[in-house]
Design goal:
Blueprint lengths: L1 E7 L8 H9 L5 E8 L5 H6 L4 E6 L4 H11 L4 E4 L4 E2 L5 H8 L7 E8 L4 H18 L9 E3 H7 L9 H9 L6 E9 L2 H6 L1 H16 L4 H9 L19
């Protein structure tokens, strides 16, 4: 069985949640659907509670990593798919692709190919790089690839690192010690909401700047405040102050 863990907070604003629910309900194969919802100011919780086949867990988790870990602990599947909350899986066959890949005992984790829902040359390049180059040479997959991992391995490494940002990078660094990621043939589609809101070039520059800050080991909480810039998509802070701190 594949357990799908969907971490949620204030998800209605980008319009993907109803599409994700419909997409998951149409997936083929043996599956368990778990949504972990932190306190939201919109109707995210109500929408999920009304969705058939979903187990909904209300959580006091304050970031995406914590929400994922709550879902992992509650799940029962041999493989756990960490579902990005603004990404659509390939229709109908995605979970079958995962199940088929994990029939090979050497496959420990996987992810799908990636594209954005906005047509722009830089975003096409970004998706190609993250689908082909980064997993091959760096063995890094971001969460918008909808990473799936064997439950036994998640237990071994202690789940998703409890970080406000770059939790997927650190997760990949831990997972790759047990083997490279298996890139599945299907393609996920991710909302380009940040690029639309801020502009493609500006957001791309922000992303690269944050990677430099990560390698300089700056404080993850401060980096995420800079990344969110009042959007508060993944983490809701008490205020919008941006104060650099050493890690």
């Amino acid at each position: 069985m594949i357990s799908v863990v969907l971490p949620c907070v204030n998800e209605l604003r980008h319009g993907y949640l109803p599409k994700i629910i419909e997409n998951l309900q149409a997936q083929q194969g043996d599956q368990e659907l778990i949504a972990v919802v932190s306190a939201s100011s919109d109707e995210t919780l109500a929408v999920l509670q009304a969705a058939p086949h979903f187990r909904v867990i209300e959580s006091e988790a304050t970031n995406r990593a914590q929400r994922l870990n709550v879902g992992i602990q509650a799940s029962q599947g041999e493989v756990v798919l960490l579902h990005h909350p603004a990404t659509l899986l390939p229709p109908e066959t995605a979970l079958r692709q995962v199940a088929q890949a994990f029939q090979d005992p050497t496959v420990m984790w996987s992810g799908f190919r990636h594209q954005f829902d906005l047509s722009h040359w830089l975003l096409r390049y970004t998706s190609w790089y993250s689908s082909v180059v980064r997993p091959r040479w760096g063995q890094i997959l971001y969460l918008d690839h909808c990473v799936a991992v064997r439950r036994s391995l998640l237990q071994t490494i202690g789940g998703v690192p409890d970080l406000d940002i770059f939790e997927d990078t650190v997760l990949s660094q831990r997972l790759k010690e047990y083997g490279p990621p298996k890139i599945l043939p299907g393609t996920v589609v991710t909302s380009a909401r940040r690029y639309r809101d801020r502009g493609v070039l500006r957001q791309a520059l922000m992303n690269q700047s944050l990677k430099v800050m990560y390698h300089l080991q700056l404080d993850p909480r401060w980096m995420n405040r800079l990344y969110e810039r009042k959007a508060q998509i993944n983490v809701t802070y008490a205020d919008d102050e941006i104060r650099p701190k050493s890690k």
